[in-house]
Amino acid sequence: MSFLPFAIAAWLFLIGLYGIVSANNLIRAILSLTVVQSATYLVLLGIGYSKGGQAPIFADIPATSKAVDPVVQVLVLTDIVIEATVTAMLLALAVQAHKRFGSLDPQDLRALRD
Amino acid sequence: MSRRTRLLLFAIAAAGFGVVLVLGLSGLPAFGDYKGVYGNVIDGIGVTERHATDLVTALNFDIRAFDTLGEEFILFASVLGVVLILRQMRGEHDRPSQHEGDEHTFGGASEALRALSLLLIPLILAVGVYIVVHGQITPGGGFQGGVVLAAGPLAVFLAGRYLRMKIVAPHTLVELGEAAGAMGYALVGMGGLVFAGVFFKNFLPLGTPGHLLSAGQMDVASAAVGLEVSGAFLVAFSEFLDQAVAVQSSPSGSEE
After folding, report:
1. What residues contact residue B234 under an 8 Å CB cut-off, 6+ apart?
2. Is A106 within 8 Å of A29 (Cβ atoms)?
3. Among A24, A22, A17, A108, residue whose Cα is nearest residue B6
4. Which helix (H) or strand (E) holds B248?
5. Fewer CB under 10 Å: which end of chain A, C or N?
6. How far apart are CA A37 and CA A94, in angstroms?
7. Does residue B121 belong to any structural domain of this protein?
8. Strand partners, B248
9. How does DSSP classify residue A106?
10. B16: helix, strand or coil
């Protein structure tokens, strides 16, 4: 059972890659990339979890309580911000690709093949 | 390459990669069996030395504040990239308004949706400001609150008033806010350099943990980041909405 979060992370990573490879629509490929990235959240949070630890918010628990690692949580926050920026850039590129080629199917991006 | 060969190649590569990935992950300490050092150190000093009760914000805006500077400018640069990619191309021009007055209406906006959206705007803004200023006490902070704040003007768009959204959140003002937020965060770091001798070292009074004005520079840094993030998201949103609503290619263009 203790390997379950990491197994799910590996599964998310691979299923997201499959989504990118099999996508017939650029939007679907971009959303699949966000699935790949969510695997890293699980790995980071899984590493930082210590059994019986509380959230590292000491607003209403004693300052000496056992808490989980806040460092990896900050890394996840950074990760989410990066994911948002990458997604925005890729979506903008998809808009331009649709204008240029009239299609969102990666197979139809002819300039890439010539 | 046909789709079939592509998937076949992927299946082979993914099988090999999957084995290595699972092997690597199984070398990690078991879930719940925490072996780190930093986490325990931060849990120990966060409240006593930094006077913040939300240690994620304490890390973000104090202990790791320098990394957040980089993170913030990644956001800044990528929004610049979106603006650059979606710039007006040759053969494109603003679509002439077909609606009454100067308003593009949004297809699905019923009267009920309009009323509800307008009702939501003050609530969204209040929640956003609350999350920004309480970052050092409870979960939240500039990044999270900034996104909520950006959703406020977007509700004007939901209410079916796209051009009015530009009046509520004019492009120049939003861009100025974004730039001011980015600069404000860097200035917090400069303040540490000038008043405490180290870049991003806290130079403001620490106050009582759990109080609104506590934890030194975190509140100021959080507000600056909140301004920057909400500006960045609004710039990105309005670029995409411009593409959908206001821009059209010339009649000879390839658009549908």
Report:
1. B150, B153, B154, B169, B174, B178
2. yes
3. A22
4. strand B247-249
5. C
6. 19
7. yes
8. B93
9. G
10. helix
**Cβ contact B10–A17 (<8 Å):** yes
pLDDT tens for B13-35 read 999 998 998 888 888 887 878 87
Please identify among residues 71-110 of chain A the ones whose CB lies closer than 8 Å to any CB of chain B.
Answer: 71-74, 77-78, 81-82, 84-86, 88-89, 91-93, 95-96, 99-102, 107
Q: How many CB atoms lie within 10 A of CB B20?
A: 9
What is the CATH number for A34?
1.10.287.3510
Q: Which domain holds residue B110?
A: 52-249
What ipTM does the predicted assembly reach?
0.82
Helix ranges (H only) for chain A are 4-22, 26-48, 70-101
Between the CA atoms of B215, B219, B222 and B224, what dihedral angle is there, to the nearest 10 degrees?
-140
Domain coverage including residue A66? 4-112
Rounded CA-CA distance B196/B201 in Å is: 6
Are B72 and B157 within 8 A, CB to CB?
no
**Residue bearing tokens 């993170």:** B71
How far is A28 from chain B, CA to nearest CA, in Å? 15
In a domain, B168, yes or no: yes
Number of domains in chain B: 1
- CA dist., res. B142 & res. B232, Å (int): 12
Rounded alpha-carbon distances, angstroms, from residue B199 to B190, B202, B228, B240: 6, 9, 20, 37
Phi (first) and psi of residue A18, to 5 degrees: -60, -40
Crossing angle of helices A70-101 and B218-241, in 10° steps, is: 20
Of A13, A50, A59, the CB nearest to B32: A50
| H or E stretch covering B132 | helix B111-133
Residue linked to tokens 């001011």: B180
SS3 state of residue B212: coil
Q: To which residue do tokens 């999270």 refer?
A: B144
> How confident is the model at residue B126, as a pLDDT?
92
Per the structure, how many domains does chain A have?
A: 1
pLDDT in tens, B68-80: 898 889 999 999 8
